[in-house]
Amino acid sequence: MTPARTPRLALAIQVYALLGAPLAWTTQLVVGFGLTEAACGPAGRMWNIAIDTWESVIFGLALTVAAGGLASATALHRAVTRGAIDDPNGRVRFLATIGLAVGAIFVALILYTGTGVLTLEECRR
Question: What is the dihedral of CA 95, 97, 98, 102, to 10 degrees?
């Protein structure tokens, strides 16, 4: 199946290219914050939560999702350039270009957030 024959597939790829990386970063921040609060609280100290392990998993998943979104934007942009996707108004090309920019920014943010969380001291109180 090519995206030219299945416009729903092209639309789904567009949505993933635009929203995959920002949602991955948001999830990384929210889940990471909750995990840190749980691990550094009185109950978390009692449970001995391995915060670095869980933060590494969250970091890896977020980076994978964001890189997939960036790759989807790249694939869409190339497909429009090759003419594999019919784009008379230029909407797909425009959204793919925006997806490239958004994906690159949020991949960088995920890298900064993940490396910062993993290199800093766990619980400072």
Answer: 130
Q: Is residue 81 part of a domain?
A: yes
Tokens describing residue 47? 């449970």
Number of compact structural domains in the chain = 1
Range of the domain at 99: 15-119
> Using one digit for the tens of pLDDT, what is the confidence trace for 62-121?
999 999 999 999 999 998 888 888 777 888 889 999 999 999 999 999 999 999 888 887
32: nearest Cα among 12, 4, 53, 3: 53
Residue 125 lies in a domain: no
Inter-residue contact 90 to 60 (CB < 8 Å): no
The first and second tokens of residue 28, run together, are 């990384």
pTM: 0.85
Residue 1 pLDDT exceeds 50: no
Q: Which residue has the tokens 């425009």?
A: 94
Residue 5 has pLDDT above 70, yes or no: no
Give the alpha-carbon dihedral of 25, 26, 32, 34, to 10 degrees: 180
